[in-house]
Amino acid sequence: MAQRAFPRPTGFSRARFVRTRCVSRPFSTVLDVPIHPSAHHTPPPAPSSSPFHDALQANTPRNNWTREEISDIYHSPLIELTYASATVHRRFHNPAAIQMCTLMNIKTGGCSEDCSYCAQSSRYDTGLKATKMVDVESVLEAARVAKENGSSRFCMGAAWRDMRGRKTNLKNVKAMVEGVRALGMEACVTLGMIDAAQARELKDAGLTAYNHNLDTSREHYPSVISTRTYDERLATIKNVREAGINVCTGGILGLGEKSKDHVGLIHTVATMPSHPESFPVNALVPIKGTPLGESKAISFDAILRTIATARLVLPATIIRLAAGRHTMREEKQIMCFQAGANAVFTGEKMLTTACNGWEEDKEMFGKWGLRPMETKETIGGQQEIAETANFDTVAEVPSSVQASAPVI
Ligand code: SF4
């Protein structure tokens, strides 16, 4: 027989038991205690010298973080961590504005690399068919559709190891970048490794950002990919940064790593000469046929912790809730936005994985008081305003020009 949640005390008739429970419960909870204002718990402030406190007080980004400091922040009680990250988020960004980006695969599959999570590697049998590069006009048509649906950034990905010997491909990519920029959208590409000259060519074509993820920490990286090194990835990021293109680099959670690897990844980007403009946080979508195809999903608290820590340590950066978002319920996505994520991929597909659709996102945004970020509010948009008006830094752009732009 199933046990009653609140057993009837000995000597109580059924009627007396019911009556008693209606008037005063035979068990004690906090609700039985009169609520007094002083009874509300105010969390004690973190010690004034703690990394957590320093991050919470920050008015400008800093890039001299130690791994220990970031680890302290990452391992703070989650309820305090997300409260702090939400506070810093509001200081640097408009919390209602979420950048909507659409990512299109302009060259699918057939990649020679061995990234153990990727459907596009030619080393794994994932059932994906390699295709030729999409023509420029089809890409621009897709960008127009994305813009009509509220996306302000259009990202184009090609499954290449690098751009060596790809002169014609680079020419076509530049035409795509120019076309996307002419639509008034930000343009981002991810083409594998590029050298300094290729980065400059892309900058001249008007490229807003270049994505090249570090994926994970330096220590865990060799167990994920063997065909290029962490340092090669960092070299591409350096070429991009030095060409004056915004860097988009982040990670994938759920690659069999530990929390110290989340800390390690954040530490690497937080100590770059300047913080990346964009830090994508992906949750692995296991693809059958890849070495990580049977991986267990990463826990949500680890995703939230990573976002909140990144927000505190990279306060001005756009934090992009990327692959795996479609597996999250709406409430979880909102917790990520509260904790500091402020960009999403939206559209029909995200490279080879599913993506939340525009209609679904519009409904969610409407319900929660969110709205698509305008180009003038993004870091790329701010830089353009600064360049056009001849300001030396984004910070010098008057707030009247910035509209509801981030306070950087
Ligand atoms: S992640 Fe990129 S580089 Fe790695 S296998 Fe996939 S397409 Fe190639």
UniProtKB/TrEMBL annotation:
<keyword id="KW-0808">Transferase</keyword>
<dbReference type="GO" id="GO:0051537">
    <property type="term" value="F:2 iron, 2 sulfur cluster binding"/>
</dbReference>
<keyword id="KW-0004">4Fe-4S</keyword>
<keyword id="KW-0949">S-adenosyl-L-methionine</keyword>
<dbReference type="InterPro" id="IPR006638">
    <property type="entry name" value="Elp3/MiaA/NifB-like_rSAM"/>
</dbReference>
<keyword id="KW-0001">2Fe-2S</keyword>
<dbReference type="InterPro" id="IPR058240">
    <property type="entry name" value="rSAM_sf"/>
</dbReference>
<keyword id="KW-0408">Iron</keyword>
<keyword id="KW-0496">Mitochondrion</keyword>
<comment type="pathway">
    <text>Cofactor biosynthesis; biotin biosynthesis; biotin from 7,8-diaminononanoate: step 2/2.</text>
</comment>
<comment type="similarity">
    <text>Belongs to the radical SAM superfamily. Biotin synthase family.</text>
</comment>
<protein>
    <recommendedName>
        <fullName>biotin synthase</fullName>
        <ecNumber>2.8.1.6</ecNumber>
    </recommendedName>
</protein>
<dbReference type="InterPro" id="IPR007197">
    <property type="entry name" value="rSAM"/>
</dbReference>
<feature type="region of interest" description="Disordered">
    <location>
        <begin position="33"/>
        <end position="58"/>
    </location>
</feature>
<keyword id="KW-0093">Biotin biosynthesis</keyword>
<dbReference type="GO" id="GO:0004076">
    <property type="term" value="F:biotin synthase activity"/>
</dbReference>
<dbReference type="GO" id="GO:0046872">
    <property type="term" value="F:metal ion binding"/>
</dbReference>
<dbReference type="Pfam" id="PF04055">
    <property type="entry name" value="Radical_SAM"/>
</dbReference>
<dbReference type="GO" id="GO:0051539">
    <property type="term" value="F:4 iron, 4 sulfur cluster binding"/>
</dbReference>
<dbReference type="GO" id="GO:0009102">
    <property type="term" value="P:biotin biosynthetic process"/>
</dbReference>
<dbReference type="GO" id="GO:0005739">
    <property type="term" value="C:mitochondrion"/>
</dbReference>
<dbReference type="InterPro" id="IPR002684">
    <property type="entry name" value="Biotin_synth/BioAB"/>
</dbReference>
<dbReference type="Pfam" id="PF06968">
    <property type="entry name" value="BATS"/>
</dbReference>
<feature type="domain" description="Radical SAM core">
    <location>
        <begin position="96"/>
        <end position="325"/>
    </location>
</feature>
<dbReference type="InterPro" id="IPR024177">
    <property type="entry name" value="Biotin_synthase"/>
</dbReference>
<keyword id="KW-0479">Metal-binding</keyword>
<dbReference type="InterPro" id="IPR013785">
    <property type="entry name" value="Aldolase_TIM"/>
</dbReference>
<keyword id="KW-0411">Iron-sulfur</keyword>
<dbReference type="InterPro" id="IPR010722">
    <property type="entry name" value="BATS_dom"/>
</dbReference>
